[in-house]
Design brief:
Rossmann fold, globular, 7 helices, two-stranded antiparallel sheet, seven-stranded mixed beta sheet, 9 strands, single chain, alpha/beta, 218 residues
């Protein structure tokens, strides 16, 4: 699941998290997502990292048309929905508890002709890998999935399994704590990693990772 910290307190950001709906506009469409902070917590609200990565994809730096994409820790489904609208064939994943909620957002925000291109599927990192073809994805996307240190090994195992030599990983996150730097160090131990975008207004970084032997750009 997309797990990120939350501090109690007021402010516009907190009110947005507790709102039952979040509305965004990408790929020339208005996307209206159901949120469920009380029921599903951090997995069921839209975080800045997802918004920033969606905006980055919309820039056209990455061509997603007819590419095979998998999203990890999808939460509300915003990122997977936008990737589908941009032409990708997307497998949108999260843990079992979030799937019904995730599926409802995906179905509500994709036109009927695109729904077959987006598949919602259960994935617990490090445990359900046999249900996915190894190395079959062109892109792996994740927004604010780097948070719980106890999941780092399973996340890296999952990335390693899903990657081929050609796969591009795009991870969008804030760097909040020392453990975040630790994850980046672990990631660099298996992949070639570079920062490709930084949104200073939201303090969100986007990192690209590929198998260390591959040094091509997009």
């Amino acid at each position: 699941m997309a797990l990120v910290p939350y501090e109690e307190g007021g402010g516009w950001g907190a009110r947005q998290l507790h709102s039952p709906w979040a509305t965004h506009r990408f790929a020339s469409r208005t996307i209206r997502l159901r949120q469920d902070w009380r029921g599903l917590g951090v997995a069921a609200v839209v975080w800045d990292a997802a918004v920033v990565l969606c905006a980055y994809l919309e820039m056209g730096v990455v061509d997603l048309r007819d590419r095979s994409v998998i999203e990890l820790g999808a939460g509300t489904g915003l990122l997977g929905i936008v990737a589908t609208l941009l032409g990708a064939r997307v497998t949108i994943t999260d843990r079992a508890a979030a799937l019904e909620f995730l599926e409802s957002n995906v179905q509500a925000n994709l036109p009927p002709e695109l729904r077959p291109r987006a598949v919602v599927k259960e994935l617990t990192w490090g445990k359900d890998l046999g249900n996915f073809p190894p190395g079959a994805f062109d892109f792996i996307l994740g927004a604010d999935i780097v948070y719980l240190e106890e999941t780092f090994a399973e996340l890296l195992q999952t990335l390693d399994y899903l990657c081929s030599e050609q796969t591009v990983i795009l991870l969008s996150c804030r760097i909040r704590y020392e453990r975040d730097h630790k994850f980046l160090k672990m990631l660099r131990g298996r992949f070639s990693v570079s920062e490709v975008h930084y949104d200073s207004s939201k303090d969100v970084h986007i990192y690209k990772a590929q198998r260390a032997s591959r040094k091509d750009d997009f």
